[in-house]
Amino acid sequence: MPIDLKQEWKAFIARELVVVEPWLRELGYELEEEQPHLGGERYLMQAVTTVSGKKLILLGHNTSTGKRVVIKVTNDQNGIRELEQEHTARAMLPAIRFAYQIFLSPEELVFRKRKGHLLSIQAYIEQDRPFLSRPIEEQFALALEAFKAQEGAHAATYEHGRQVRKTLGTMDAPAYLEQFKILARESTKRLPEDARLIQALAKAGKLLEQHMETIERYTGFLTHTDFVPHNIRVKGGRIYLLDHASLRFGNKYEGWARFLNFMMLYHPALERAFIQYVHDNRTPEESLALRLMRIYRLVELIRYYAGWLESASGDLLALTEARLSFWTDALIALLNETPLEEKRIEVYKETRDRLRSNEEKRRQQGLH
Amino acid sequence: MRMKIVLATPLYPPDISEPAPYIKELARRLAPKHEVVIVATSYLPEAVDGVRIQTVNKHRPLLIRLFFLTLTLLQEAKHADIIIIENGASTEFAGGIVARLISKPFIMHIGDVAAHERTKQSIRDRILEAFLSRRAASVINDPPPHKPEILPFTERLSDEQTSYDTWWSNHIARLNELMTYANRS
Questions:
Q1: Residues of chain A with C-beta less than 8 angstroms from the C-beta of B41
Q2: Which of A80, A114, A213, B96 has the most CB within a 10 Å radius?
Q3: Which chain B residue has the Cα nearest residue A273?
Q4: Which residues of chain B neighbour A149 with C-beta distances below 8 Å?
Q5: Minimal-distance CA residue of chain A relative to B18
């Protein structure tokens, strides 16, 4: 079955390229030789995706100017909905009256439909170096600026709420709790023997229910729910946000949560810096809101990897199990308000690097 | 002299734009010596020790919001010694009505500079601002400074904090003076 999924993905790519390449040529674009977003573990991401649709993300260039572009194409209903959502969000943001800062985003060059396919071409933002290779002070300053820009758009009143609900979507405390229960249930179903995880999920659920008011207090803020280095480009000292489909109005710390959970593994010093920042400059309730959102997002991540178990085999299966164990430890650390041990992170990284395929290692290069 | 002070504001934390943080900080600094009530359009407002917060749900439609804001402000203002009203169309409207219904001293504070600038571009907003300011014992155009942040990897400048604290000391002293004078008039 795992082999079939990979073959299925390759067959899907081949079929799509037959349609896409001539279309691109008509529009004056050409694909690049190397397509990093098609290989590695990508086939599994597409298979078990919970919200985003099946789509190809390709790199190309304008045949006249040579300028690089990012091409997204899909004929999957969920994929189409996602790209339309991204297109709408991009167009809507400058028009939000209460958005006091406009986000930088790559220019959308083409947005077309044809015979069931939707094509979006965006300018590729060249950056001199990836986000994580910048000095920590710069990483902190850039990310904080982006978080503050998001917070500046607060759907504060009835009129605001009506305007944004139609386009970007909203999450409130009951919606977060409802979604958490679904994620916890689905994770438990796939890992019925994992007593440690089940106990942690129960504790997490109680904590979220206990602090619904805190979660609700900080909703209504624009948040990029996938604010991680591979969705960011840095140019001219400013952050460009990619993936506008991930924008919605929810708890202001949801985006921070995704970022800090990512940095827990990739850059713990940056994670600690942000926790300290919130502690020093914001209310204790906001520190709690951040922790609650981190717990929520970790459960989402655990559910995501739990979905890989039925499709992965060999080294990838072992890696998936290692990921689940690691992120469960991260969840338990957050629940107990203790830092995740450095040793634990190192052990996981060694395991991951040993088990990751060469193709996936290539895909990961330069991603962050 | 201990006074009952009502602070009326269109924005309050978790809102982050001014005058939200200003009002919270003002309430915190006044609370040890006075009885402070905040009247705000808000939803699940952040608490301040020793301060009562009366909110009008911001998620209600505009006209309903304005009606209840006016009513709530009237109810609190009846028992107040002084009312401080932040600029903003909703509070200027509510404050203007309340000022005409009850004989209590009030001070208008221009804390939201952006809103004040927008007022100059709109006849309606200029009328609303005048509706309130003409009844005010004083109009203070004294926008608050941003609170200096404690940033990792950055040396904290003690000057910034001193400057911030000094602004607040002077501001509270000025307000106390104005409140006492307005109350006696």
A1: 157
A2: B96
A3: B152
A4: none
A5: A152
Chain B CB within 8 Å of residue A97 CB? no
Residue window 99-128, chain B: list those with CB within 8 Å of chain A. Answer: none
Question: What does the alpha-carbon distance between residue A139 and residue B34 come to, in Å, rounded to a whole number?
Answer: 44
* Burial grade of A223 (CB within 10 A; 0-12, 13-18, 19 or more): buried
What's the CA gap between A138 and A127, in Å, rounded? 14
- The residues, any chain, with a CB within 8 Å of residue B67's CB and separated by 6 or more, are none
Contact at CB, B15 and A156, closer than 8 angstroms: yes
For chain B, state the CA radius of gyration: 16
What sign does the dihedral A222-A228-A229-A230 (CA atoms) show? negative
User: How many CB pairs below 8 Å do chains A and B form together?
Assistant: 54
For the entire predicted model, the pTM comes to 0.93
Which amino acid, B9? T
Across the interface, whether the CB atoms of B154 and A136 are under 8 A apart is answered no
Residues B166, B168, B174, B179: what is their CA dihedral angle, to the nearest 10 degrees? -160
- Cβ contact, residue pair B61, A158, below 8 Å: yes
CB contact (8 A) between residue A137 and residue B58 = no
Is the Cβ pair B58, A217 closer than 8 Å?
no
Token reading at A151: 């917070």
- C-alpha A278/C-alpha A269 separation (Å) is 15
- ipTM exceeding 0.90, yes/no: yes
Residue A99 has pLDDT above 70, yes or no: no
Nearest by CB to residue B15, choosing from A137, A154, A277, is A154
Q: pLDDT digits over A128-164, tens only?
A: 888 999 999 999 999 999 899 888 877 555 566 666 6
Burial bucket for residue A104 (CB in 10 Å: 0-12, 13-18, 19+)? middle
Q: Is A213 on the interface with B (CB under 8 A)?
A: yes
CA distances from A155 to A275, A283, B63 (A): 25, 20, 18
Contact B16, A151 (CB under 8 A): yes
Q: What is the 3-state secondary structure (H, E, C) of A58-88?
A: EEEEECCCCCEEEEEEECCHHHHHHHHHHHH
The order of strands in the sheet holding A56-62 is: A29-31, A56-62, A68-74, A117-123, A108-114
User: Of all helices (H) and strands (E), which one includes residue A195?
Assistant: helix A195-210
